[in-house]
Design brief:
The structure is a single chain. By secondary structure, this protein is an alpha+beta fold. The chain is built from seven helices and ten strands. β6 and β7 form a beta hairpin.
C-alpha cells in the first residue's frame, strides 16, 4: 500500500488572519496521521486553539508505539485520550490567558494503521471518501441543523425551515468552555481510494460534482488540493480555506 498526501491552507479573500491549521505526518512503524482544525471565527484566539490542537497531536503521535495498539478499541481509546488531553491543556491555558476562555476549534482526524482508517470528528470540518463508487461524506457536521433533524426524525415531527445562519451554529467544538462531542469510528481501506479533509471554508463553497471532477483528474494530489482551493475561492468563499488529500494506491 502506497500513500501520497498533500495539504494546503489559504487565508482566503476576506479574513485578516488564518485560523485553520492542518497536519500530515508518517512515523517509522508505518502509521499515518492527518488532521484539519478550523479555529472558531468570531471567538478570540481561534488560531491558538487550532494550532495548539495540531501541535499536541503531532507530538504525541511521534512518541507513540503503535505496535502496542493491535485492536480497534485500543486505537479508539488512544484517540479519545488525545482529544481529552488537548481539551484539558486548552482549559489550563485559559486560566492564565483569560481572553482565551472562549476559544475553540473544530477537528477532523484520519489515522491510518493496521490497514484501517480511524476517523475522528468534532464540529463541522469534514472527511470525505472518494473511490470507484463516487464521493461520500463520512462525517456528520455537529451543528444545530443536524441535531434538529435527528430530534425531529426520532419524534416523527414535521420539519420546518431554519434560518441559514442559525443552523450552522456548532453543537460541539474543542475548547475550554465548549460542549465537546467526539465521533470516533473506523473502516477498512483499499487501494485506489482517497480521503479528503476540509474546513468549512472549502466544502461550504464546493458542490459535490466539482469535488468529484477535480479528484478524477490525472494529476498529483498536490495539484488537486490547489485546484479545490482555487475553486472554493472562485465560488466566493468568505472564510479561510483548508484542504488535505490522502491518496492510497
Amino acid at each position: 500500500m502506497k500513500i501520497i498526501a498533500s495539504y494546503k491552507t489559504d487565508i482566503g479573500n476576506y479574513r485578516k488572519n488564518n485560523q485553520d491549521a492542518a497536519l500530515y505526518i508518517e512515523n517509522k512503524t508505518g502509521q499515518s496521521l492527518a488532521a484539519v482544525c478550523d479555529g472558531l471565527g468570531g471567538h478570540k484566539c481561534g488560531e491558538i486553539a487550532s494550532n495548539m490542537a495540531i501541535k499536541m497531536l503531532k507530538n504525541v503521535f511521534q512518541t507513540t508505539d503503535f505496535n502496542k495498539l493491535k485492536h480497534d478499541m485500543q486505537i479508539h481509546a488512544w484517540l479519545q485520550v488525545q482529544i481529552d488531553t488537548i481539551h484539558e491543556a486548552m482549559y489550563d491555558y485559559s486560566l492564565s490567558n483569560h481572553e482565551a476562555m472562549d476559544m475553540g476549534t473544530t477537528m477532523v482526524i484520519v489515522l491510518i494503521a493496521n490497514n484501517k482508517a480511524y476517523l475522528v470528528n468534532i464540529g463541522d470540518s469534514r472527511i470525505y471518501l472518494f473511490n470507484e463508487n463516487g464521493l461520500k461524506q463520512l462525517t456528520v457536521d455537529h451543528n444545530v441543523l443536524n441535531l434538529y433533524l435527528k430530534t425531529q426524525q426520532e419524534e416523527q415531527q414535521e420539519l420546518v425551515d431554519l434560518n441559514q445562519t442559525y443552523w450552522k451554529a456548532l453543537t460541539s467544538a474543542l475548547g475550554p468552555s465548549k460542549t465537546l462531542k467526539t465521533d470516533i469510528f473506523h473502516l477498512p481501506i483499499f487501494t485506489n481510494t482517497y480521503f479528503l479533509l476540509t474546513s468549512d471554508g472549502a466544502h461550504d463553497f464546493l458542490e459535490n460534482h466539482e469535488i468529484t471532477s477535480i479528484l478524477m483528474k490525472k494529476v498529483s494530489p498536490n495539484i488537486k488540493v490547489k485546484l479545490l482551493i482555487k475553486q472554493a475561492l472562485n465560488n466566493a468563499s468568505t472564510d479561510n480555506v483548508t484542504v488535505l488529500l490522502i491518496e492510497i494506491n
